[in-house]
């Protein structure tokens, strides 16, 4: 059952109030090893054209953009690849690639990208007012419009929170915009309890551009 608005707000307040558990590591030591990373590097040859050799992704405001994968949570990437493969997440390019991978290859390529250092990305040009609005949405939300802050689910500094809530800091801004739009129009539906869909529908175009621009400029902490 999806959260009611009241439960959604309370959930956000609890997270913001410090009730969350400590953030998990990007990689679980008992599930990642050098052999898996090496195999994953081989599998990643099919990913380079869109996500680049260093896993930085590409920011293409006028076309499809691809996310930074380097340093993302391993289990989050596994879940997303499986969602593309089983059709619960839609993307013509990714469905084709994910369908070629078996479960071991999915785990291996996720292990590889999780092991990579986080590259710097080129932020989009944005004026001070837009960035200020983005910071407000990311860190405080907009309670008058029932918009919960990004950090309520994605953790302090928007550095990610387990396999369900990926790091947003330092992500390609056009990709963030595309995903918010996908949740808003219902073409992406694999968010936990419909949380992102609920929030995305309350963001107008200016809010979407603002929060994406601000998040892209934030530093990413090295995961231990």
From TrEMBL:
Keywords: Heme, Iron, Metal-binding, Signal. Residues 35-117, 129-219 form the Cytochrome c domain. This is Cytochrome c4. Residues 1-28 form the signal peptide. The keyword Signal applies. The keyword Signal applies. It comes from Advenella alkanexedens.
């Amino acid at each position: 059952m999806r959260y009611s608005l009241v439960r959604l707000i309370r959930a956000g307040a609890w997270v913001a109030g410090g009730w969350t558990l400590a953030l998990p590591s990007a990689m679980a030591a008992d599930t990642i090893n050098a052999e898996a990373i090496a195999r994953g590097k081989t599998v990643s040859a099919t990913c380079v054209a869109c996500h680049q050799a260093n896993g930085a992704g590409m920011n293409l405001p006028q076309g499809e953009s691809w996310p930074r994968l380097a340093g993302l949570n391993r289990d989050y990437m596994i879940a997303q690849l499986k969602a593309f493969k089983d059709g619960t997440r839609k993307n013509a390019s990714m469905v084709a690639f994910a369908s070629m991978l078996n479960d071991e290859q999915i785990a291996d390529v996720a292990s590889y990208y999780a092991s990579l250092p986080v590259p710097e990305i080129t932020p989009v040009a944005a004026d001070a007012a837009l960035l200020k609005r983005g910071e407000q949405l990311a860190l405080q939300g907009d309670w008058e419009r029932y918009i919960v802050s990004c950090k309520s689910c994605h953790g302090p500094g928007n550095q990610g929170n387990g396999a369900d809530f990926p790091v947003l800091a330092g992500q390609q801004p056009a990709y963030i915009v595309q995903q918010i739009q996908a949740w808003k129009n219902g073409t992406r539906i694999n968010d936990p309890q419909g949380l992102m869909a609920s929030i995305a529908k309350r963001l107008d175009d200016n809010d979407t551009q603002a929060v994406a621009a601000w998040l892209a400029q934030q530093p990413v902490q090295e995961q231990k």
